[in-house]
Protein 1
Amino acid sequence: MKQSLKNVTIPAWNAQRHLNQTVKGMPPSGIRRFFDLVSEMEGAISLGVGEPDFVTPWHVREACIYSLESGITHYTSNKGMPELREVISESVSRDLGLTYDPAEQILITTGVSEAVDLAFRATLNPGDEVIVPEPCYVAYTPDILLAGGVARTVPTRLEDEFRLQPEEVAAAVTDKTRALLLSYPNNPTGAIMTRSDLEELADVVVENDLLVISDEVYAKLTYSGSHASFAQLEGMQDRTIILNGLSKSHAMTGWRIGYALGDPALVGAMTKVHQYTMLSAPTMAQVAAVEAMQKGDEEMLHMKHEYNLRRRMFVSGLNRIGLDCFEPRGAFYAFPSVKAWGLSSEEFAERLLREQKVAVVPGSVFGPSGEGLLRCSYATSREELIEALDRIEKFLASL
Amino acid sequence: MNEILEILSENAKATTSEIAALLGRQQADVAKEIRDLENAGVIRKYITLINWEKLDQSFVFAVLELKVALQRKTGYDAVAERIANFSEVESVRLISGDHDLSVTVRGKSMKDIAYFVAEKIAPLEGVQSTCTHFILRSYKEHGVILTEKQKPQRLVITP
């Protein structure tokens, strides 16, 4: 006979019991608190935005609209549209002088974020360690953790212009280290690594047989010389996975298009995870990406030029008003020090927001070595940057 | 393109100190270069782009297309310069195609402009025909979209 539920005490639903322990233990991003603070404040100028202030160029949006009118709304192949892989292969060959076979060595992902996640999931076994330079973008450590790995952060410092030092990497290597993450031009510091800086790392990488995962999403926004990739060093192409995308270079953050380049075995493994989780990157966004990569150079260079003008003005402005700032040569961030002002970066950022309504991101959000520093994005209008400098100057005068 | 001109063409109000900061140059050098450009006639005027449609007291604009008899020695220049001297005229351009000159005219009313064309332009020696197009609405001027809606919002803080 069927048992009635009437007389059984049903325990109260407890969602906590059903959570994955790793996810449960993960702290929420430190940016969240600031987001809430700024959101409820009227008239605040935000230097806290990690994306271009430009809207995606019209010809790219128009190409996407046309593709929708034409009914191009189906899945693409798991690896991504062949045309897009072709055009990426050509562009990488022009920019870096490296050959990647569109059939086996290029994977289109849903933003570089997915590519980062795939790279870790496809290469790490439980307990494997990844060396991560810090301060760094907030997703790397959680992504490594979710992939079952362990992140070993290595500090970078203002006096080295936040370039990763080979002896620090060597000191962090253990017998479990499998990979080194590179992220230059860097968010949050704006630092770059030149070819000779990278060459100094190559010995440690080879000696310890490390895989290099190189997030180069800000590569096009390099303001002195041209961007250098670890994969360009002699013999390093095979042991490097390059991750890149169109978000920053072509003002296409919301389209979520990224890509991974590398050894066929590695890209093949990433494709396997991608096909069972994402299936394929959004088709309309891939069409837009083809248009952007084929015909978007002029607008891209125009945006880069504008960032460069703002960079000069803003960095010299920060130094003038008394916030020491090294010259950031990439991305769109300045990373000034507030150490001389006797406040922690969090206190400084919170008081600056409450007292003068300028939002910046405390460097500590990007790891302990970001303490005493602030991330200020100059991907905002010149007028706002000038006004922000004025307000920060007033704030400093009140300290 | 000259970087100073690029900045001024976007914003005539940019000060020499702002331009110097944007370009990483000395303010005095920037000021001197601007003076030189003014003296050489490269920079002719600092103007303000106004969206007249936002105001009650608006102007009426028209584009005139003129056929002009080509004159010995002076070509189109003599007629074009005569037309350019009228204060009602905003621009005069020699164009290719069915017509020869394209002239933009500003007036207080359509009647104003109609009289101006009939009395001053059509009777000019060398002007063979005129075709007046009144501008009904302006969507974009000098690279600025006038009908643009509110700027799309970004999240206030993103990693």
Protein 2
Amino acid sequence: METINKLGRILMVEDDPKDVELTLTALEEFNLANEVIVTRDGAQALDYLYCRGEYATRSCDNPAVMLLDLKLPKVDGLEVLKQVKSDEKLQLIPVVVLTSSKEEKDMVASYKLGVNAYVVKPVDFHEFVNAIKELGVFWAVINEPPPGSVRK
Amino acid sequence: MDGSSLQQRTAQAHLLRYGLAVVSLSIALGLALLAHNYNFRNVEVPVFLLAVALTAWYGGSGPAIVALLLSIAFFDYFFTEPRYTLYVTAADLPYLLVFTAFALLVAWFSAVRRRVERELRQARDHLQIEVSERTQQANLLNLTHDTIFVRDMSNVITYWNRGAQELYGWTAEDAVGKSSLQLLQTIFPVPIDDIRAELLRTGRWEGELRKTRADGSQVVVASRWSLRRDEQQRAVAILETNNDITERKRREQEIQGLNVELAKRSAELEAINKELEAFAYSISHDLRAPLRHMSGFTELLQKRATAALDEKSNRYIAMILDSAKRMGDLIDDLLAFSRIGRTETQKTSVSLAQLAREAVAEVRQDTQGRNIAWKIGALPDFSGDRAMLRLVLVNLISNAIKFTRTREHAEIEIGCLDENNDLIVFVRDNGVGFDMKYVNKLFGVFQRLHQSDAFEGTGIGLATVQRIIHRHGGKVWADGVVDGGASFYFSVPKPQGY
């Protein structure tokens, strides 16, 4: 139970509700789902990060990690990544790209923009659950997030 | 030596000329005395004048004066009273003076005439030499196949060589005297005034001109102009040489056309490639997501409902999961296959022996619990894309492992043959083999010769092998016997200096 107390807030940017459900299920299985914010496109994610729009009233601190899909409506994942990594206030947030795309092009672009990790969603459910678990445990528990992020 | 002999010759010439004066006057005196003897009166004056004139003519002015003095002396001594003395009476004085003046005049005339004639002769010789030189040069110019013609500053053709006749079809008789611009209907790439200005400034001009032949056909020529100036530096003529580049121009245009076509084609190909890339991306992303959901939710369902479902239902769920996994593998393999076509090969020197060791290590986990006799022969180095060639070996070796699964003692051999310009690498096994009837199906995408429950696989491995080897400029082939093993070969061109 100690791990839960130290759990950092996870910002998830994912447009597919089924992926959201699967990811949350996987996180739940390991008791990592209690502090997950889900945004459904790039614009909403940026609203959250900048505490504006529907998130204007939240206490404005950074998540411990952001799980970012690349193929998103409105503002796509690479643009969100670019925005985050070029903003002095946001650039310390660890960003993990979590995508279906194995394309080298996307990988190179992401790393060039300064992504902290790039994970291809496995098709196999067990592997998927394992990947999400390990990501959650590593970034929300093991990794020491930069100062100014939420710890519960 | 030369100087003294020259002096000697000049002295001899002087002696001759003055001797001539003396001799001619002596002969004149003889004649005059003879005539006088036979009572012909007044013959002496014309005879002496003739002698003086002759001396002036052949001897020049010095001997002429000597002749004149001699003639006066002879005239006075032999023919004026009192005779046989040099005494001159007052009455004879005017007569003598007139004679002297007349003789001087004759001498002067003949000296002048002689000089003029000599000059004329020299000029003629000079001209003759010049003419023969020019004729020789003109003949030389005629020998060349290059087109050469000369025109004066108002473009009237003054010289036209055989090369010009060959190129334009006009003979020298046709061309000389005509305006070159009109005869050849020259088309200039820039205003002719600019060309003339450059020619006058630098003395030359070069460019491409379009001209018309006698038969009306057009030619493109590389034209060089040189300006000829006279001694006063006045521009007097233009020498123009032409080379027919019509054929070259035509080819250049053809090449240009082909290049445009090529650029268009490659743009089209690039567009198609982009589309393919987008398609592959779409498969990579959009097709995998629903697949993941299918297997994910099925698994969740399985977890929750296993206890409540009967055996058959549970089997159905297992089959759905199996199919989803299989489809995921297919997509992955297909993507890898299409990536081979899209990425550039990066050629380096590759150690095939090293690659084979790596490939065997990579498939090691599939060989656990198996009894496999590996036989790896000497393998050379060659030039190719390391990652791709590694994939080739991995695919061939894992195939060999897969299709020897039913053998108690599996044997897998990797080796190399040397044949003319190619290196041939083979992977041979003693597995289930295949029927040579279907050999042409082996390397096709999604082509399989075994039922999928006997030997798993997507049917893309050998297609990938073929694609990679083709990109390396090589060939792939196989032979096998049902239940008697199979051999897979690929060839690659030998590296230079092998």
